[in-house]
Design brief:
- This protein is an alpha/beta fold.
- It is about 30% helix and about 35% strand.
- β11 and β12 form a beta hairpin.
- GO terms for molecular function: uracil phosphoribosyltransferase activity.
- Its EC number is 2.4.2.9.
- Keywords: Glycosyltransferase, Transferase.
Length: about 210
């Protein structure tokens, strides 16, 4: 299942527009805020697919039968670029536990790269709904590696993947390797550069959010 935000008409597309705009990108606080707002939008959309239970709530005037989440999801992200997007999800799923993964592209001689994963901090994921957030889904290699590592460790009930921008190649890679995952994407771009950056994309989300790394 793939949800493509660009195929719908909503104010959320404004967040994507501003994330891409090289002039608006100069304001790193607004860039982070737009990722956060996008995360909140996706949380609302994902919430429609989750399981609910009925709970009687006592008001000052009586009792109301209310629909509440059967269980909170766990919100995961790949450091550092994914933090604002994860925060947007956490603003809505405000009782959720969180998982953090350190993974990055390790460039080798000749310009090729491998995905290096150094660190995972996570609650127990057995029987849980996992929502993995990362602003860019380029080759899809880091996403697949991180998700498979968690799947190998835990019996995850359901996997959702959230990205602001994805490439067609990245989507294909995720679907081939994580066929049960549900994808929630802001937009899907057709091209990538020789260094595997999405075109037109939006650039390096981590640098735009937190400053250029050295």
């Amino acid at each position: 299942m793939i949800f493509d935000l660009s195929k719908t008409k909503s104010i959320a597309n404004t967040f994507i527009t501003e994330l891409r705009d090289e002039n608006i990108q100069k304001d790193s606080m607004r860039f982070r805020k737009n990722l956060e707002r996008l995360g909140g939008f996706f949380a609302y959309e994902i919430s429609k697919s989750l399981k609910y239970t009925t709970k009687d709530i006592t008001t000052p005037l009586g009792v109301s039968a209310c629909e509440v989440l059967a269980q909170q999801p766990v919100l995961a992200t790949i450091l550092r670029a994914g933090l604002p997007l994860q925060q947007g999800l956490l603003n809505i799923f405000d009782r959720a536990e969180c998982c953090f993964i350190s993974a990055y592209r390790k460039v080798e001689k000749g310009g090729d790269f491998v995905i290096q994963m150094d660190y995972i901090s996570t609650p127990d994921l057995d029987g849980k709904v996992l929502i993995m957030a990362d602003p860019m889904l380029a080759t899809g290699q880091s996403m697949v590696m991180c998700c498979k590592e968690l799947i190998n460790r835990y019996k995850i009930e359901e996997l959702h993947i959230v990205a602001a921008i994805a490439s067609t190649e990245g989507v294909a890679h995720v679907r081939a390797n994580l066929p049960k995952a549900k994808l929630w994407l802001g937009a899907i771009d057709e091209e990538m550069t020789s260094k595997s950056y999405i075109v037109p994309g939006l650039g390096d989300a981590g640098d735009l959010a937190y400053g250029e790394k050295v």
